[in-house]
Design brief:
Order of helices and strands: HHHHHHH
Bound molecules: iron/sulfur cluster
Helix content: 55-70%
Number of strands: 0
Distance between the termini: 28 Å
Number of helices: 7
């Protein structure tokens, strides 16, 4: 991934791209550590992701993960293998998320509106 392409795209077009390059950023912060000018490209890419999401342009994989977070409280469902390993290591069971708390958080932060916008866009694309 070339992180500058995501920034170049918005500078040249004035718009965030549909499922643009910013979504490839894993926020590892390596570019931040290496930039001799102290520019946080990673933070710029996070802002581009926020703008992209707010405009309903998030990639399907991200929308599905957030929908899973909303409906189940977790992004990746656990497996019996993980549960068994946790038990062998003497770790407690993972806490069960409270759906009411999740909905409250989604509504209070505006995430609900953004999720609905992206889901609607996905629905209209199919
Ligand atoms: S934070 Fe990591 S993944 Fe994201 S643009 Fe910088 S180096 Fe690439």
């Amino acid at each position: 991934m070339n992180p500058r392409l995501a920034v170049d795209s918005i500078v040249s077009t004035g718009q965030v791209a549909e499922q643009g390059n910013e979504w490839l950023c894993a926020y590892c912060l390596m570019c931040d550590q290496r930039c001799p000018m102290g520019i946080s490209l990673a933070d710029i890419l996070i802002k581009l992701k926020n703008i992209s999401s707010a405009e309903g342009k998030a990639p399907s994989s991200v929308v599905q993960a957030v929908e899973s977070l909303f409906t189940t409280g977790i992004i990746a469902l656990g497996s019996t293998g993980v549960d068994r390993k946790r038990s062998q290591l003497g770790l407690p069971e993972l806490p069960k998320p409270n759906p009411e708390h999740i909905e409250k958080l989604f509504r209070a932060t505006g995430a609900m509106e953004i999720l609905e916008k992206n889901l609607a866009k996905e629905g209209s694309a199919q």
